[in-house]
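Q: Convert this sequence to structure tokens.
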Amino acid sequence: MNHNLWTTNPTQTQTQDRQLLQPWALPGASLQTYTSTQWLNQVLNAYSPITLKEMDSVALLNRIDTKFVFSMGRLYSLLAALRPLYRVLSVQGQRLNHYRTLYFDTPAFDLYRLHVNGRADRFKVRSREYVDSQLSFLEVKHKTRKDRTIKDRISTPAPLDDLTPESEQWLDSVLPFDSRSLQPKVWNTFTRVTLVSNTGCERVTLDTNLVFSNAFNEIRLDGIVIAEVKLDSRSTRSPFLTRMQDERIHPQGFSKYVIGASLLYDHLKKNALKSKLILLNRMTQGF
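A:
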């Protein structure tokens, strides 16, 4: 466990050469990760499954997102309480699904800066591999001024560790800036549980075992859960949101790219993230 999340190798600020980024590889698991995985598998086996094809009806590429951050200890009772109300995504028999993502940004980290400066209209660009289903996509997430999240994506034969002319052409059709300025910046891996409502148009993702890395450092956020409720409208009833209110777990924003970049690159502005980074540091230490 890393007890000082924002201590990084000072040599990393000396270069941002894309060739120094690590290749696609899942990091090794810690003992805490192994233990939590065993427990989650036991709990999720009690859920009714839903397949990827069945989940097409709740793709929610244009949606309202609400995020929460809490400790693994609170996840256990939560999953037990929600079992009658949701099904769990099962991919080739796996209910704990593995994701690998590479985020892109400009040399000056303009996409990162838009987020930390509180811009209402902002973008993220990533290549994501859905490991268990062996599918890969180049994705753009657009947070609009109306607080909706719109996701565009195209399938790619394999994860992209750099942008190709074909991918840049597609990006130029969905981004308001020249995609040729984008470079790979942050790797991220995590394990995801996806819950799908039995009654409404709702998905809930629960991400654990988060790891961020570049060529110089690796940061683990052991013992932390990032939950995201995805609804088609604010009027949709959500048992998960009701449960969060009952548990007094309050919504808070969490961008994997922004947090990962802030932890891995010392030179980036992060004053606006200070309270969140302190909270994450405390949670990884079990407080």
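Helices lie at 31-44, 72-82, 110-116, 165-174, 239-246, 256-264, 274-284.
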